[in-house]
Amino acid sequence: MGLRTVQVGEARLAVAETGEGGRPLLGVHGFTGAKEDFAELAAPLADRGWHVAAPDLRGHGDGEHLAGPDHYHPDAFVEDVLGVAGALGWDEFVLVGHSMGGALAQRIAIDHPGRVNALVLISTFHGPLDIDPALVALGQAIVASGGMEALAAALAARRANDPAALAARARIERVRPGYADHADRKLLRCSPAMWTAMAPRFPEWPDTLEEVRALAVPTLVVVGSEDSTMRPHCERLAAAVPSARLAVIDPAGHSPQIEQPARCIEEIVAFLEGPGGRPPGSTVGQTVRSSSEVGP
Questions:
Q1: Alpha carbon distance 215, 219 (integer Å)
Q2: pTM higher than 0.70 for the full model?
Q3: pLDDT at 291
Q4: What is the DSSP pairing of strand 93-98 with strand 23-28?
């Protein structure tokens, strides 16, 4: 994938892209994620005629690390995404969001319906997450005292006692050897100000479930079978969005696009192209397919 830097308001953002000149598709990573979270999808989609771009949002990876928590808010991330699309010259695009990126994608599709041709939501949520506020406060204290390195060590110790997390990590290692270490580095490359500003927002995230019932955009919801936190949210989203489809990737945890990339590519390509190979948003109607379906 190539790399460019774009200025979006106060932040300079790094954007990975491949397939330049193809049909526009924008990938949005999750909290403490990075543009590389779409690396497994990018080349196969580019080979099928898609121009895939994925930025590092502010405070993540190679995105600008602005000083102070006031620079980090869901609305600021939404502006990052729209600013990148504008820098690429994209008036309309397919939007693929993972985890927090999927929540941001919902907001964009709701507020800017004419810009989103199709929506792919991967292991995401529509409202508040069931996170113990005491754990959030502990994480903030750890970051304040020891930075992201101390937080990474604390999370690694917690993960060691979580069989599902260990299984997901092992799957990722089989697909992309060394990626688990890269995932650790992604966390270390995050801004402490961003982490401490955003972490408390997830238990209070504004619920979009009623708003998405009015979406007219073709939507695919993808979730790992073992993602116990996000799967209920994804099932409710697929039931709420008119004509949405739910693809449950088994086995997979929170990052099915990395753990089971071939399965995810199969589902996404079938959704985007369908019979005749034309994407949603074209003048030819399309049939959307997935491995399982939840009705509205």
A1: 9
A2: yes
A3: 36
A4: parallel
